[in-house]
Fold each of these.
Amino acid sequence: MNNMGSSSSPYGQTVSNQLSATATAAAPLKGIIFDMDGTLIQLNVVNELIQRIYQVADEDPLGKCLERDDLDVMIAKLSPEGQRKAKKTIVEILQRHVDNMTIQEGGPELVAFLARNGVKRAVLTRNYERNAIVMQQMYAQVMTEATFDLIIGKDTPYDTSFPPEQEIPKADRIRQICNIWGCDTNEVIMMGDSITDDIVEGNRAGCGGTVLLQPIGYQLNHFYGTRIGDSRERTPTMCVESLTDVRHFFAAQMNNDVCYQQGEM
């Protein structure tokens, strides 16, 4: 886990009604947990990873009949040679991904806005922690504010009860982040571009809201054959087309809170 520093006291606004739909009651917004690939950076390798690993499975004697679902679960059921090929493929794709990494438009402005208002920021990614740190450094080059309080990648240690290379469900990671921040899961928002990963895991963890980023108006990670809203877990509390939209949304919410508080004085 990479702890990038801490923010000032959280801004006193509550999670909006729209973003607290999964919570039992409105709770103070303590932080936002960001997916990385396709969210904080433009290049989304998820679809390529899925296609390539499916090809490895098709060529593996144990993989042909496996259900095409969670990649980590499927890879663990391949033959030793199939697992080796799959892991090598993942490393190659992710390295090329780092070499071509591009910041998502509106990302630095959103992260800086949250930092100025005391909202904690974490990165939770199935990419490697070292690659997420490269992303953080790119953000730091164009920001004067602190970037992220926490960075957690697929290889970030969780606890000793898990095997060294086991992928930890994002829902458990979300709870881990909240434990570090000293808050409940209904006080944070999970934001990402994948229904099957970011939205499902955020809802399973009981986040105060889940935000689906759809850069050109539709959800990019579609290889699992799922649709937005085809189950409660795959229903985001809000969909946006850009991170700029998210910043404008929170700015409006904060402005409304300030106006309300001034009116009460």
Amino acid sequence: MNFSAIIALCLLVGAAIVAPTASAASIDTYPNFFSSDQIKHFASVDVDGEGAEEVFNKAFGVAGPGVPGRGETVNRSVGAAALDPAISRQLLDVTGTQMTAEELRSIPITKITGTTRKHVDCHYHSGELAVDKVAFVFLESNPEAKFVHGSTEIPVEAGKLVVFDGNVPHNTRVARGTVALAGPVDLRRLSVVWNISPPTSKSVKGPKSPKSPKSSKAAKGGSGAPSVSPTKQKK
């Protein structure tokens, strides 16, 4: 290896050492992203009525394989509302996100009535883990509730846009009242995300191996010598 090649290799190794890791959790908030009129518009969406599920399915379709259905979530109701293209463009402009899909035409409206389980986000149709930024906007203020992302706690304040890493465990804690929000959606794809249990670091136990057959006991009156296990034949 010549001298210039060695220098190039050292530079590559140095760059790899100082490069930031993608696993670092981040969360950003943008107060007053929604105006009071926008908050009223989205907050008026019915998420509990008989037609809410039909509206949601018409806007987003049905859950993909392995994704919990709309009716399987606890302490959470979901509906849908049409989204003005100007809001979706504002969402991308404010966050500096480069869009990789068409403009979002509808947005889920979520009502949380109690503390949700800790979860990560996945794409609603594919079940694929959401590795890009996820976003939602609070539609009401509740001093008795907070959004917890990793070790960060965010107060629930109407109009506030919250942008975070969806693959970091998070949940909403509600001591009293409710939390309404527009979203959540994947910012880059502008698609609906759903909640699934976070991956566990514990190894999954596989099926138990069959027990080896016990050595047959020596016949009565025999020599009493221990039996010898047969050796496996080489293939």
Amino acid sequence: ERFSPATGPRIERVHGNKERVKLSELSVGQKMKGRIISMANYGLFVDVGSKKDGLVHVKDVSKDYFIPDLKSRFRPGQDVDVWVKFIDVSNYKLGLQMFPPAPGPEESQKAPALDWAELVPQKAVSGTAVKYSDFGVFVDIGLPKVLAFLHKRKMRINRRQRKYQPWEIVPLGSVVAGFVFAADPARERVELTTVPPPLWDQLLPRHTHRPEEDEEMGTGTPTSLDDEEEEGEGEEEGEEGDSEEDEGDEGGELLSEKEIRQIALSRGRTQLL
């Protein structure tokens, strides 16, 4: 690896120009050895010996978990195993992923194919949890090439579960039964919720689309710390009344005025009462 102050590290490629193959000679699902040439916030550019470097999108780095900071796991010059996800010869694009494609027999176990015209708000759907981000779950509802996203904010969960990670609430491979919250065919986005539509106004008072949700669905990273704080507030507002058992676990009864005054006196802060 060589370094230039102007261009940064220069990675030595494994294959020479004469050894490179055309994109048309590759096949979808093919496993290949590659080397990370450069990195971006949205993915890794990998040299697999073709005339065009392939892109591993951040969503295709792991099948089970979302990795928001690629620099914490990868570096330029690192050798990796990849699989061909798609080939677009006309536009000279090569898509890669870092996990093998799903085996053929599992295809028949997937949810039946849906059409965008069917995905209207409040429609009941079900699917399988296949992937995660820090903010929610990606669900296969049978829509070709598109995974629906169930944000933790839109899950109907109890008070204890607020502290859990999405994969602890919805285990990988489990069946998710919910409702279409919003669908955008132009952007190929589907948002789900497990809150029944009659309770949306009560449990999801701010159930309008927010710009930062685009980033959460695409990259799993909030735009600022304020977004994280707002998420916590949204979850509290979006919870249904918990059971008495959960209420008791979360922490005790309110102090009486007499008890508050006694505590203040013991701390020498009577001037505040």
